[in-house]
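FW: tagging you since you asked about this chain on Friday. Here's the raw sequence from the shared folder, copied in full. Didn't touch anything.
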Amino acid sequence: MRHTEGEANTSAARAEWAAKEADRATRDLLARDAGVFLHQALSSPCVSTIAKAEGIWIEDTAGRRYMDFHGNSVHHIGYGHPRVVAAIKSQLDALSFSPRRFTNDVSVTLAETLAEISPGDLGKVLFTTGGSDANEVALKIARAATGRFKTVSFWDAFHGAGFGAASVGGEATFRSHIAGPLLPGAEHVAPFNCYRCAYGHAGPESCALACAKMVEFVLEREGDVAAVIAEPMRAVPTVPPPGFWKHVRAACDRHGALLIMDEIPTGLGKTGAMFAFEHDGIVPDIVTLGKALGGGILPIAAVIARRDLDLCGDFAIGHYTHEKNPVTARAALETIAVIREEGLAERAAELGSHALARLAEALDGCPIVGDIRGRGLMFGVEIVEDRATKTPGRAAAERIYYRCLDAGLSFKISAGSVLTLSPPLTIAVADLDRALDIVVAAIGAERF
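HL: got it, structure written out here
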Protein backbone atom coordinates (compact mmCIF):
# COMPACT_ATOMS: atom_id res chain seq x y z
CA MET A 1 0.00 0.00 0.00
CA ARG A 2 1.22 3.52 -0.77
CA HIS A 3 0.84 5.68 2.35
CA THR A 4 0.20 9.37 1.75
CA GLU A 5 -0.35 10.67 5.27
CA GLY A 6 3.35 10.94 6.19
CA GLU A 7 6.86 9.76 5.46
CA ALA A 8 7.21 5.96 5.33
CA ASN A 9 8.54 4.40 8.52
CA THR A 10 9.51 1.15 6.79
CA SER A 11 11.41 2.53 3.81
CA ALA A 12 15.06 1.96 3.00
CA ALA A 13 15.75 5.59 3.88
CA ARG A 14 14.27 5.09 7.37
CA ALA A 15 16.35 1.94 7.86
CA GLU A 16 19.49 3.81 6.83
CA TRP A 17 18.64 6.63 9.24
CA ALA A 18 18.07 4.17 12.10
CA ALA A 19 21.32 2.33 11.38
CA LYS A 20 23.29 5.55 11.89
CA GLU A 21 22.05 5.96 15.47
CA ALA A 22 25.13 5.78 17.70
CA ASP A 23 23.62 6.78 21.05
CA ARG A 24 22.95 3.68 23.14
CA ALA A 25 20.20 5.20 25.28
CA THR A 26 18.33 6.29 22.16
CA ARG A 27 18.72 2.87 20.53
CA ASP A 28 17.55 1.12 23.69
CA LEU A 29 14.44 3.29 24.06
CA LEU A 30 13.54 2.81 20.40
CA ALA A 31 13.90 -0.95 20.82
CA ARG A 32 11.73 -0.93 23.94
CA ASP A 33 9.09 1.09 22.09
CA ALA A 34 9.08 -1.33 19.15
CA GLY A 35 8.85 -4.25 21.57
CA VAL A 36 5.81 -3.09 23.54
CA PHE A 37 3.63 -0.94 21.25
CA LEU A 38 1.38 -2.35 18.56
CA HIS A 39 2.94 -1.60 15.18
CA GLN A 40 1.04 0.39 12.58
CA ALA A 41 1.78 2.29 9.39
CA LEU A 42 3.46 5.69 9.77
CA SER A 43 4.01 5.21 13.50
CA SER A 44 6.21 2.39 14.73
CA PRO A 45 9.14 1.92 14.42
CA CYS A 46 9.65 5.54 15.50
CA VAL A 47 12.09 7.93 13.92
CA SER A 48 13.69 8.95 17.23
CA THR A 49 13.00 9.70 20.90
CA ILE A 50 11.94 12.79 22.82
CA ALA A 51 13.23 13.68 26.27
CA LYS A 52 12.20 17.34 26.32
CA ALA A 53 9.87 19.67 24.42
CA GLU A 54 9.90 23.43 24.87
CA GLY A 55 8.81 26.25 22.58
CA ILE A 56 9.62 25.26 19.00
CA TRP A 57 12.16 22.66 20.12
CA ILE A 58 12.16 18.94 20.79
CA GLU A 59 15.22 17.24 22.27
CA ASP A 60 16.09 13.56 22.12
CA THR A 61 17.75 11.31 24.69
CA ALA A 62 21.16 12.06 23.20
CA GLY A 63 20.68 15.81 23.69
CA ARG A 64 20.17 16.58 19.98
CA ARG A 65 17.70 19.40 19.40
CA TYR A 66 15.29 19.78 16.51
CA MET A 67 13.06 22.64 15.48
CA ASP A 68 9.68 20.94 15.25
CA PHE A 69 7.77 21.98 12.13
CA HIS A 70 5.26 19.14 12.49
CA GLY A 71 4.10 18.70 16.08
CA ASN A 72 1.00 16.79 14.95
CA SER A 73 -0.47 20.31 14.60
CA VAL A 74 -0.86 20.65 18.39
CA HIS A 75 1.90 23.17 19.06
CA HIS A 76 0.39 26.42 17.76
CA ILE A 77 1.66 28.26 20.84
CA GLY A 78 4.77 26.11 21.22
CA TYR A 79 5.45 23.33 23.68
CA GLY A 80 5.04 23.93 27.40
CA HIS A 81 3.76 27.49 27.13
CA PRO A 82 4.24 28.88 30.68
CA ARG A 83 0.76 30.42 30.84
CA VAL A 84 -0.92 27.15 29.92
CA VAL A 85 1.26 25.12 32.29
CA ALA A 86 0.46 27.52 35.15
CA ALA A 87 -3.26 27.44 34.35
CA ILE A 88 -3.31 23.63 34.36
CA LYS A 89 -1.48 23.45 37.69
CA SER A 90 -3.87 25.94 39.24
CA GLN A 91 -6.90 24.05 37.93
CA LEU A 92 -5.60 20.76 39.33
CA ASP A 93 -5.64 22.31 42.78
CA ALA A 94 -9.12 23.80 42.34
CA LEU A 95 -11.10 21.07 40.54
CA SER A 96 -9.45 18.13 38.80
CA PHE A 97 -12.47 16.28 37.37
CA SER A 98 -16.17 16.66 36.73
CA PRO A 99 -18.47 13.68 36.10
CA ARG A 100 -20.24 14.12 32.79
CA ARG A 101 -23.75 14.63 34.19
CA PHE A 102 -22.53 17.57 36.28
CA THR A 103 -21.23 20.86 34.98
CA ASN A 104 -18.48 23.24 36.05
CA ASP A 105 -17.67 26.88 35.46
CA VAL A 106 -14.48 26.43 33.44
CA SER A 107 -16.10 24.08 30.90
CA VAL A 108 -19.09 26.40 30.44
CA THR A 109 -16.74 29.37 30.05
CA LEU A 110 -14.79 27.51 27.37
CA ALA A 111 -17.98 26.74 25.44
CA GLU A 112 -19.04 30.39 25.71
CA THR A 113 -15.61 31.51 24.50
CA LEU A 114 -15.72 29.21 21.47
CA ALA A 115 -19.15 30.61 20.61
CA GLU A 116 -17.76 34.14 20.99
CA ILE A 117 -14.84 33.62 18.59
CA SER A 118 -16.95 31.73 16.02
CA PRO A 119 -18.66 33.69 13.24
CA GLY A 120 -22.33 33.61 12.35
CA ASP A 121 -24.67 31.65 14.59
CA LEU A 122 -22.13 28.97 15.54
CA GLY A 123 -22.86 28.77 19.25
CA LYS A 124 -23.73 25.28 20.54
CA VAL A 125 -20.79 23.15 21.68
CA LEU A 126 -19.85 19.61 22.66
CA PHE A 127 -16.39 18.50 23.79
CA THR A 128 -14.64 15.23 22.98
CA THR A 129 -11.12 13.96 23.68
CA GLY A 130 -10.06 13.77 20.03
CA GLY A 131 -10.77 15.14 16.59
CA SER A 132 -11.92 11.83 15.13
CA ASP A 133 -14.70 11.68 17.72
CA ALA A 134 -15.60 15.32 17.12
CA ASN A 135 -16.11 14.62 13.42
CA GLU A 136 -18.31 11.63 14.21
CA VAL A 137 -20.45 13.78 16.53
CA ALA A 138 -20.81 16.32 13.72
CA LEU A 139 -22.00 13.59 11.36
CA LYS A 140 -24.60 12.45 13.90
CA ILE A 141 -25.91 16.01 14.22
CA ALA A 142 -26.18 16.23 10.43
CA ARG A 143 -28.23 13.01 10.37
CA ALA A 144 -30.54 14.31 13.08
CA ALA A 145 -31.00 17.68 11.37
CA THR A 146 -31.66 16.35 7.86
CA GLY A 147 -33.13 12.90 8.38
CA ARG A 148 -30.53 11.68 5.87
CA PHE A 149 -27.37 9.59 6.22
CA LYS A 150 -25.30 10.15 3.06
CA THR A 151 -22.19 12.32 2.95
CA VAL A 152 -19.96 13.90 0.34
CA SER A 153 -16.28 14.26 1.13
CA PHE A 154 -12.96 14.25 -0.68
CA TRP A 155 -10.44 11.65 -1.70
CA ASP A 156 -7.09 12.15 0.09
CA ALA A 157 -8.80 13.91 3.03
CA PHE A 158 -8.13 12.91 6.63
CA HIS A 159 -10.88 13.17 9.25
CA GLY A 160 -9.73 10.61 11.82
CA ALA A 161 -9.20 6.91 12.35
CA GLY A 162 -12.60 5.81 13.74
CA PHE A 163 -14.93 3.88 11.47
CA GLY A 164 -17.16 6.89 10.79
CA ALA A 165 -14.29 9.34 10.39
CA ALA A 166 -12.37 6.91 8.17
CA SER A 167 -15.48 6.39 6.04
CA VAL A 168 -15.65 10.08 5.13
CA GLY A 169 -11.86 10.29 4.95
CA GLY A 170 -10.12 9.58 1.70
CA GLU A 171 -6.76 7.97 2.47
CA ALA A 172 -6.17 4.29 1.75
CA THR A 173 -4.08 3.93 4.91
CA PHE A 174 -7.14 4.51 7.06
CA ARG A 175 -9.99 3.06 4.96
CA SER A 176 -8.73 0.00 3.09
CA HIS A 177 -8.32 -3.71 3.84
CA ILE A 178 -8.92 -4.26 7.58
CA ALA A 179 -10.91 -1.00 7.87
CA GLY A 180 -13.86 -2.25 5.81
CA PRO A 181 -16.74 -2.49 5.53
CA LEU A 182 -17.18 1.22 6.15
CA LEU A 183 -20.29 3.36 6.56
CA PRO A 184 -22.71 3.22 3.63
CA GLY A 185 -23.52 6.38 1.73
CA ALA A 186 -20.08 7.95 2.07
CA GLU A 187 -19.63 9.42 -1.41
CA HIS A 188 -16.27 10.89 -2.46
CA VAL A 189 -15.12 13.33 -5.12
CA ALA A 190 -11.66 14.46 -6.21
CA PRO A 191 -10.21 17.21 -4.00
CA PHE A 192 -9.29 20.73 -5.03
CA ASN A 193 -5.66 20.75 -6.08
CA CYS A 194 -4.76 23.35 -8.66
CA TYR A 195 -1.26 21.91 -9.07
CA ARG A 196 -2.56 18.40 -9.75
CA CYS A 197 -6.08 18.98 -11.04
CA ALA A 198 -7.97 15.69 -11.21
CA TYR A 199 -10.05 17.14 -14.05
CA GLY A 200 -7.04 17.96 -16.20
CA HIS A 201 -7.16 21.75 -16.05
CA ALA A 202 -3.96 23.76 -16.23
CA GLY A 203 -4.90 26.05 -13.36
CA PRO A 204 -7.67 28.00 -11.63
CA GLU A 205 -7.90 30.44 -14.53
CA SER A 206 -9.21 27.74 -16.88
CA CYS A 207 -11.06 25.29 -14.66
CA ALA A 208 -14.35 27.15 -14.07
CA LEU A 209 -14.31 25.55 -10.60
CA ALA A 210 -14.75 22.03 -11.96
CA CYS A 211 -13.94 20.53 -8.54
CA ALA A 212 -16.64 22.58 -6.80
CA LYS A 213 -19.14 21.81 -9.54
CA MET A 214 -18.53 18.08 -9.04
CA VAL A 215 -19.60 18.47 -5.41
CA GLU A 216 -22.80 20.08 -6.63
CA PHE A 217 -23.22 17.37 -9.28
CA VAL A 218 -23.17 14.65 -6.59
CA LEU A 219 -25.50 16.61 -4.31
CA GLU A 220 -27.98 16.94 -7.15
CA ARG A 221 -27.75 13.35 -8.33
CA GLU A 222 -27.99 11.83 -4.85
CA GLY A 223 -30.70 14.23 -3.75
CA ASP A 224 -30.60 13.18 -0.10
CA VAL A 225 -27.12 14.02 1.23
CA ALA A 226 -26.94 14.94 4.91
CA ALA A 227 -23.62 16.79 4.83
CA VAL A 228 -20.52 17.77 2.95
CA ILE A 229 -17.53 17.37 5.29
CA ALA A 230 -14.14 18.76 4.37
CA GLU A 231 -10.95 20.47 5.42
CA PRO A 232 -11.25 24.17 4.46
CA MET A 233 -7.60 24.09 3.47
CA ARG A 234 -6.01 20.72 3.00
CA ALA A 235 -3.12 20.16 5.38
CA VAL A 236 -0.97 18.76 2.54
CA PRO A 237 -1.01 21.85 2.32
CA THR A 238 -3.31 22.80 -0.55
CA VAL A 239 -5.22 26.09 -0.72
CA PRO A 240 -8.67 26.09 -2.37
CA PRO A 241 -9.07 28.12 -5.56
CA PRO A 242 -10.88 31.46 -5.24
CA GLY A 243 -14.63 30.99 -5.06
CA PHE A 244 -14.51 27.25 -4.34
CA TRP A 245 -16.13 27.32 -0.91
CA LYS A 246 -18.69 29.96 -1.85
CA HIS A 247 -19.84 27.70 -4.67
CA VAL A 248 -20.00 24.64 -2.38
CA ARG A 249 -21.76 26.61 0.36
CA ALA A 250 -24.43 27.73 -2.09
CA ALA A 251 -24.81 24.18 -3.46
CA CYS A 252 -25.30 22.81 0.05
CA ASP A 253 -28.02 25.39 0.69
CA ARG A 254 -29.81 24.56 -2.56
CA HIS A 255 -29.81 20.82 -1.89
CA GLY A 256 -30.50 20.80 1.84
CA ALA A 257 -27.09 19.48 2.95
CA LEU A 258 -25.11 20.80 5.91
CA LEU A 259 -21.52 21.98 5.48
CA ILE A 260 -19.10 20.64 8.11
CA MET A 261 -15.65 22.19 8.28
CA ASP A 262 -12.91 20.07 9.86
CA GLU A 263 -10.61 22.74 11.32
CA ILE A 264 -8.71 20.31 13.54
CA PRO A 265 -5.25 21.03 12.06
CA THR A 266 -5.99 24.46 10.55
CA GLY A 267 -8.10 26.27 13.14
CA LEU A 268 -7.07 28.61 15.98
CA GLY A 269 -4.92 30.94 13.91
CA LYS A 270 -2.61 28.59 12.03
CA THR A 271 -3.50 29.90 8.56
CA GLY A 272 -3.56 33.58 9.49
CA ALA A 273 -7.20 33.69 10.59
CA MET A 274 -8.89 32.18 13.62
CA PHE A 275 -10.62 29.72 11.27
CA ALA A 276 -9.27 28.80 7.85
CA PHE A 277 -12.72 29.04 6.25
CA GLU A 278 -12.77 32.77 7.04
CA HIS A 279 -10.30 33.32 4.18
CA ASP A 280 -13.02 32.16 1.79
CA GLY A 281 -15.87 34.32 3.08
CA ILE A 282 -18.24 31.56 4.16
CA VAL A 283 -19.67 30.24 7.43
CA PRO A 284 -20.26 26.48 7.78
CA ASP A 285 -23.08 24.83 9.73
CA ILE A 286 -20.73 22.87 11.99
CA VAL A 287 -17.04 23.29 12.82
CA THR A 288 -14.75 20.80 14.53
CA LEU A 289 -11.62 21.81 16.43
CA GLY A 290 -8.93 19.75 18.16
CA LYS A 291 -5.18 19.23 18.28
CA ALA A 292 -3.91 22.71 19.27
CA LEU A 293 -6.99 23.38 21.42
CA GLY A 294 -5.28 21.69 24.37
CA GLY A 295 -2.21 23.91 24.16
CA GLY A 296 0.05 21.10 22.99
CA ILE A 297 -0.33 19.48 26.40
CA LEU A 298 -3.75 17.90 26.89
CA PRO A 299 -6.20 16.17 24.52
CA ILE A 300 -9.44 18.04 23.89
CA ALA A 301 -11.57 18.60 20.78
CA ALA A 302 -14.79 20.47 20.16
CA VAL A 303 -17.83 20.53 17.93
CA ILE A 304 -19.34 23.97 17.34
CA ALA A 305 -22.75 23.91 15.64
CA ARG A 306 -25.35 26.45 14.60
CA ARG A 307 -27.69 27.11 17.49
CA ASP A 308 -30.71 25.76 15.63
CA LEU A 309 -28.94 22.42 15.19
CA ASP A 310 -29.37 21.61 18.89
CA LEU A 311 -31.78 18.81 17.92
CA CYS A 312 -30.35 15.71 19.57
CA GLY A 313 -31.73 15.98 23.09
CA ASP A 314 -33.38 12.56 22.88
CA PHE A 315 -30.28 10.82 21.59
CA ALA A 316 -26.74 10.08 22.80
CA ILE A 317 -24.28 11.66 20.38
CA GLY A 318 -21.18 11.89 22.58
CA HIS A 319 -21.22 10.76 26.20
CA TYR A 320 -17.44 11.03 26.62
CA THR A 321 -16.07 10.44 30.11
CA HIS A 322 -13.92 13.57 29.91
CA GLU A 323 -16.50 15.66 28.05
CA LYS A 324 -16.44 18.46 30.64
CA ASN A 325 -13.05 17.83 32.20
CA PRO A 326 -12.14 21.12 33.90
CA VAL A 327 -8.39 20.59 33.45
CA THR A 328 -8.52 20.11 29.69
CA ALA A 329 -11.04 22.95 29.48
CA ARG A 330 -8.68 25.23 31.40
CA ALA A 331 -5.83 24.36 29.03
CA ALA A 332 -8.04 25.22 26.06
CA LEU A 333 -9.24 28.49 27.58
CA GLU A 334 -5.69 29.64 28.26
CA THR A 335 -4.57 28.58 24.78
CA ILE A 336 -7.29 30.67 23.15
CA ALA A 337 -6.38 33.60 25.42
CA VAL A 338 -2.72 33.41 24.37
CA ILE A 339 -3.64 33.30 20.67
CA ARG A 340 -5.98 36.29 20.96
CA GLU A 341 -3.96 38.46 23.33
CA GLU A 342 -0.66 37.93 21.52
CA GLY A 343 -2.19 38.43 18.05
CA LEU A 344 -0.86 35.07 16.88
CA ALA A 345 -3.27 34.65 13.96
CA GLU A 346 -2.11 37.97 12.53
CA ARG A 347 1.49 36.96 13.22
CA ALA A 348 0.96 33.68 11.35
CA ALA A 349 -0.28 35.61 8.33
CA GLU A 350 2.76 37.89 8.37
CA LEU A 351 5.36 35.16 8.92
CA GLY A 352 3.69 32.86 6.41
CA SER A 353 3.94 35.51 3.69
CA HIS A 354 7.58 36.00 4.62
CA ALA A 355 8.31 32.26 4.43
CA LEU A 356 6.58 31.73 1.09
CA ALA A 357 8.39 34.71 -0.44
CA ARG A 358 11.78 33.50 0.80
CA LEU A 359 11.22 29.97 -0.50
CA ALA A 360 9.97 31.24 -3.84
CA GLU A 361 13.08 33.39 -4.27
CA ALA A 362 15.59 30.80 -3.05
CA LEU A 363 14.12 27.89 -5.03
CA ASP A 364 13.23 29.77 -8.21
CA GLY A 365 14.06 27.60 -11.20
CA CYS A 366 14.97 24.53 -9.12
CA PRO A 367 14.14 21.57 -11.39
CA ILE A 368 12.81 19.34 -8.59
CA VAL A 369 10.55 21.95 -6.95
CA GLY A 370 7.14 21.65 -8.54
CA ASP A 371 5.10 23.90 -6.28
CA ILE A 372 5.42 26.15 -3.24
CA ARG A 373 2.14 26.88 -1.48
CA GLY A 374 0.31 27.45 1.77
CA ARG A 375 -1.47 29.89 4.05
CA GLY A 376 -0.07 31.40 7.19
CA LEU A 377 2.27 29.05 9.02
CA MET A 378 1.11 25.96 7.15
CA PHE A 379 3.11 25.83 3.94
CA GLY A 380 4.93 23.31 1.83
CA VAL A 381 7.27 22.49 -1.03
CA GLU A 382 6.26 19.77 -3.49
CA ILE A 383 9.20 17.77 -4.79
CA VAL A 384 8.99 16.31 -8.30
CA GLU A 385 11.24 14.28 -10.54
CA ASP A 386 10.45 16.53 -13.48
CA ARG A 387 8.59 19.84 -13.52
CA ALA A 388 7.04 19.16 -16.91
CA THR A 389 5.53 15.77 -16.03
CA LYS A 390 5.03 16.60 -12.33
CA THR A 391 6.04 13.05 -11.41
CA PRO A 392 6.20 12.95 -7.59
CA GLY A 393 9.76 12.93 -6.31
CA ARG A 394 9.19 10.50 -3.44
CA ALA A 395 12.76 9.26 -3.07
CA ALA A 396 14.20 12.77 -3.29
CA ALA A 397 11.70 14.05 -0.73
CA GLU A 398 12.83 11.37 1.73
CA ARG A 399 16.49 12.20 1.19
CA ILE A 400 15.75 15.87 1.79
CA TYR A 401 13.77 15.02 4.91
CA TYR A 402 16.63 13.08 6.51
CA ARG A 403 19.16 15.77 5.59
CA CYS A 404 16.94 18.26 7.40
CA LEU A 405 16.74 15.99 10.45
CA ASP A 406 20.54 15.79 10.46
CA ALA A 407 20.61 19.60 10.40
CA GLY A 408 18.16 19.94 13.31
CA LEU A 409 14.79 20.40 11.60
CA SER A 410 11.85 18.01 11.89
CA PHE A 411 8.74 18.14 9.71
CA LYS A 412 6.40 15.82 7.83
CA ILE A 413 6.25 14.56 4.27
CA SER A 414 2.66 14.65 3.00
CA ALA A 415 1.17 13.02 -0.11
CA GLY A 416 4.43 11.17 -0.63
CA SER A 417 6.50 14.11 -1.82
CA VAL A 418 5.38 17.36 -0.16
CA LEU A 419 7.70 18.84 2.48
CA THR A 420 5.00 20.10 4.86
CA LEU A 421 6.23 22.83 7.20
CA SER A 422 4.03 23.89 10.11
CA PRO A 423 5.93 25.74 12.86
CA PRO A 424 4.40 27.22 16.03
CA LEU A 425 2.83 30.66 15.70
CA THR A 426 5.28 31.88 18.36
CA ILE A 427 8.42 31.13 16.33
CA ALA A 428 11.06 33.85 16.21
CA VAL A 429 11.81 35.26 12.76
CA ALA A 430 15.47 34.26 13.11
CA ASP A 431 14.52 30.64 13.84
CA LEU A 432 12.08 30.60 10.92
CA ASP A 433 14.77 31.90 8.58
CA ARG A 434 17.24 29.32 9.89
CA ALA A 435 14.75 26.53 9.21
CA LEU A 436 14.10 27.83 5.70
CA ASP A 437 17.86 27.90 5.07
CA ILE A 438 18.06 24.24 6.15
CA VAL A 439 15.29 23.25 3.73
CA VAL A 440 16.83 25.18 0.83
CA ALA A 441 20.26 23.67 1.49
CA ALA A 442 18.84 20.14 1.73
CA ILE A 443 17.03 20.56 -1.59
CA GLY A 444 20.14 22.05 -3.15
CA ALA A 445 22.14 18.98 -2.13
CA GLU A 446 20.15 16.88 -4.60
CA ARG A 447 21.84 16.04 -7.90
CA PHE A 448 19.73 17.67 -10.59
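FW: The chain has 14 helices and 16 strands.
HL: agreed, and The longest helix spans residues 344-362.
FW: great, closing this out.
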